[in-house]
Amino acid sequence: MDELYKIYNKPEIASSIEPLYERPKEEEYLRAYKKNMYGFFGYGMWVIEEKATKKIIGRIGFDNREVNGEMTPELGYVIDPDWQRQGIAYECGKAALFYMSEELGISHINCVMPEDNIASINIAKKLGFEYVNSIEKFKLYEIFIQLN
Q1: pTM confidence score
Q2: Strand, coil or helix: 111
Q3: What's residue 146's pLDDT?
Q4: Residue 122 domain-assigned?
Q5: Which terminus of the chain has fewer CB atoms gathered within 10 Å of its CB, N or C?
Q6: CA–CA distance, 12 with 1 (Å, rounded to integer)
Q7: How many domains does the chain fold into?
Q8: Does 79 reside within a domain?
Q9: Which range marks the domain in which residue 101 is found?
Q10: What are phi and psi of 49, to 5 degrees?
Q11: What pLDDT does 66 receive?
Q12: Residue 140: what pLDDT?
């Protein structure tokens, strides 16, 4: 938890992602999240560890989001700024999408992010997502990208 709070509180991250709850509420949320997401859907968010040190350097995985009246899995990722631009989000994204497709048989996946988060948009495009539309929500524009 401490490492996730450090990552989420960095200005480069905090400006483009929903913050974590206060510690007790976040711990409660994660317990319920693991039980419900993995229990019902077989997927959720994972932490990304640096192999040599086992230090948590980010998260990647899936939540569910309603898009056009349909609940679909949404790929999300966050990488510590000290570890960005090394291909980590792309490599982990490929593995996560492979898991969804090959292990769970899920092919329709969305990826949502602020329009000004060019790095994340480029990663999504590299993973094969295509732009669908933009909406305004919480003072941010979001891009819905659908996997081919």
Answers
A1: 0.82
A2: strand
A3: 56
A4: no
A5: C
A6: 19
A7: 1
A8: yes
A9: 2-106
A10: -110, 145
A11: 81
A12: 34
